[in-house]
Amino acid sequence: MRVREWDPKTASADEIESLVATLNEVLATDLPDDPPWRPDAIAPYLTETMQGERRVCWLIEPSGEGTELEIPGRTLGHANLLLVGDIGGGEVRDHPAARHRGLGRALVGCVARRAYSEGLSSLGVEAVGGTPAVGFWESLGFRCAYIEMRNILDLSRVDWPAVARMAAAVPAGYRVEYHPGGLPPALLEPYAAAKAVRRETDSSDLELRPSSYDAKRLAESLDTLNRRGMRPYLVLAVHEQSATVAALTEVVTPAQHPTRADQYDTIVVPAHQGLGLERVIKARMLLELRRAAPELTEVQTWNALENDPIGEVNRELGYRADRQWREYETDVLDLIDRLGPASTA
Ligand SMILES: CC(C)(COP(=O)(O)OP(=O)(O)OC[C@H]1O[C@@H](n2cnc3c(N)ncnc32)[C@H](O)[C@@H]1OP(=O)(O)O)[C@@H](O)C(=O)NCCC(=O)NCCS
Questions:
Q1: Whole-angstrom distance, CA of residue 178 vs CA of residue 175
Q2: What pLDDT was estimated at residue 344?
Q3: From CA 224, how far away is CA 264, in angstroms rounded?
Q4: What was the pLDDT predicted at 210?
Q5: Cβ 96 under 6 angstroms from ligand 1
Q6: Is 133 in the pocket of ligand 1 (CB under 6 A)?
Q7: 219 lines ligand 1 (CB under 6 A)
Q8: CA of 128, closest atom in ligand 1
Q9: CA–CA separation, 96 vs 300, rounded Å?
Q10: CA dihedral 240, 241, 247, 253 (to 10 degrees)
C-alpha cells in the first residue's frame, strides 16, 4: 500500500471517479441516509479555498506488489488537511472494506507530519455520531471540543401554506430581501456588521466556520463558496429607519450533492430580537429555495446541544434531530508523539 500526496486539480477522471465511488461507499456504510456525491463537482470543492488558505490531499493506493488488498475502481483511503493560519482541519476516510488494517492511522501520520512542517499548533477533525470515526479519533487521543446536533428538514413534509403565513408576518419598519448567489456591493458592509455582532456575543469556537466579519472577507467568502460549487442563498431583514441588517439567514446548495442543502449562519441582531424575525426570514428562505432549487429535497442544520438542540423556529418548520456532530482537537506535537516512530518514517 502506498500513500501519495494528490492534487485534485491535475487528477485524471479515473482518479476522481475512484475517489467519489469510495466516498459514496463510505456514506452508504456510515451515513446511509445522506445523499451520494457527484463526481463532477469534487475537484473545485477540494481545491478552492479562501485567500491564504490551502488544502493538501492524500490518497492510498495499492502499490501493485504481492497479495495486498486491492478494490478495483476504488481509492482505498483519502485524507485532506485545510491549513488556516496556525490551525489545521483534517479529514480521513477509508473504504469500508479496507478498515482495521492501519490505513486510517497511516493517513493521520501524513496529516500530522504536514501539519507540523507547516508550523500548525493544533489540528481539528469532526466525527459523526454513530460512525467509527468517534472511536478512531478518541483512540488517537483527540479531545472532544464540542458537540452539536444535526437536524434535517424533509421538504416533502413541510406545511407550505403555514410557511407562507410565517414569511408574510414581517414586523412594521422592516423589509425582507432575498439575494441568491451573493450580495449587492452596498449590502456587504451592513451584512458584515450583523455578522460581527454575532461574533461579539458568541463565545463558542467558530474558528473554522465559514463566517465573515468584515465586508472584504465576506465578499471573498461568498466568492469562494461559488468557486467551490456551493451556491449561497441569503435572506435578510433590513431595519428601514437605520438602514442596518437586523437579521440574516444563509443556506448553501452544494453541487456535489444538490438534493441536500446546508444551513449556515442565522443571526438576529440583539436590538431586533423578540419580533419574530428569525421565523420570517427562515420561512421566506424555504419559499425561495422551493422556487430556485427544485431538485432540493432536504435542508440540514447544526445546533448546539445545550438548551434546545433543534430550536423553537426549526421545530415549527419541521426539522427533526438526526445525529450528533462531534468536533475533536489535539496538539500537533502530542499527536506525533502518540503516533510513535512510524509516523515520522
Ligand atoms: C475512522 C476510519 C478512518 C478508521 O480507519 P481504519 O483504517 O479502520 O483505521 P486503522 O485501521 O488505522 O485503526 C487504527 C485504530 O483506530 C481505532 N479504531 C478504528 N476504528 C474504530 C472503531 N470503529 N471503534 C473504535 N476504535 C476504532 C482502533 O484502535 C484501531 O486499531 P485496531 O484496528 O487494532 O482496533 C474509518 O473507519 C473511516 O473512514 N470511517 C468513516 C469516516 C467518516 O467520517 N464517515 C462519515 C462521513 S462520510
A1: 10
A2: 47
A3: 15
A4: 46
A5: no
A6: yes
A7: no
A8: 46
A9: 25
A10: 30
Question: Tens digits of per-residue pLDDT, 66-78?
Answer: 667 889 999 999 9
pTM: 0.92
> What's residue 67's pLDDT?
63
Cβ-Cβ contacts under 8 Å for 67 (sequence gap 6 or more): none
103 Cα: distance to centroid of ligand 1 (angstroms): 9
Residues 265-314 pLDDT 10s: 999 999 999 999 999 999 999 999 999 999 999 999 999 888 787 899 99
CA 36 – ligand 1 centroid, Å: 21
Pocket test for ligand 1, best of 20, 99, 107, 326 (most atoms within 8 A of CB): 99
Instruction: Name the grid cell of 288.
Output: 425561495
Query: How far is residue 22's CA from residue 7's CA, in Å, rounded to a whole number?
Result: 17
**Grid cell locating 324:** 450528533
Burial of 285 (C-beta count, 10 Å sphere; 0-12/13-18/19+): buried
* Ligand 1 atom closest to residue 34's alpha carbon, by position in its atom list: 48
